[in-house]
Amino acid sequence: MNRAALLICAATLPLAGCVSFGAKPPKSLLVLTSDAMVPVGQVRDSATARTIVVDVPGSAAALATARVPVEVTPTTLAYVKEAQWSEPPARLFARLVSDTLAARTGRVVISPVQAVGEANDQLGGTLRRFGLDATARQAVVAFDATLSRAGQSGTETRRFEARVPVAAIDADSAGPALNQAANQVATQIADWVGR
């Protein structure tokens, strides 16, 4: 190496500790797991069971992030420090609802691509709340559902909500409480949709 190259390398070494290519990742990521699962190996057939498509719900910008929102006051939001979802909460919630519907109703849950050409029920909606309420010290999941049943001209709507107490407004409390609240809402949805 020539002297000029050595000088350039020596000059850039102090900068190496200053460069960052993103935020420091959290120790772990939050996920949702369904309390109701179809047994492994069980075959379901759309020729003999009713089908349903579960769309990923819409959500407000505050929920379209991997961070966990905290309602500090009715008009103020913050985020739980070091709490982050593995993917957008709306996708996690749609998957949990799909698993719960399949297990509790016996329906075959199919994707929108698979639904082309078949008469299927369709569940959609908007995820209104999916975070913590600091004043009530609760995890809150609220979902405005829409249900189009095959062969019927109208669309049904219904609001679902579940609240679960949290010991603290922190990352360790947020995940389990939101998972429990999401499962309660998914169970209510499955009971509403029916077999």
UniProtKB/TrEMBL annotation:
Gene3D superfamilies in UniProt: ABC-type transport auxiliary lipoprotein component (3.40.50.10610)
Domain annotation ABC-type transport auxiliary lipoprotein component: ranges: 39-190
Residue stretches in coiled coil: none
Pfam family, one: ABC_trans_aux
Signal peptide from the UniProt entry: 1-16
Domain of life: Bacteria
Keywords: Signal
InterPro entries: ABC_trans_aux (IPR005586)
Name of the protein this chain belongs to: Cholesterol transport system auxiliary component
Native source organism of the sequence: Sphingomonas abaci
Top-level taxonomy: Bacteria, Pseudomonadati, Pseudomonadota, Alphaproteobacteria, Sphingomonadales
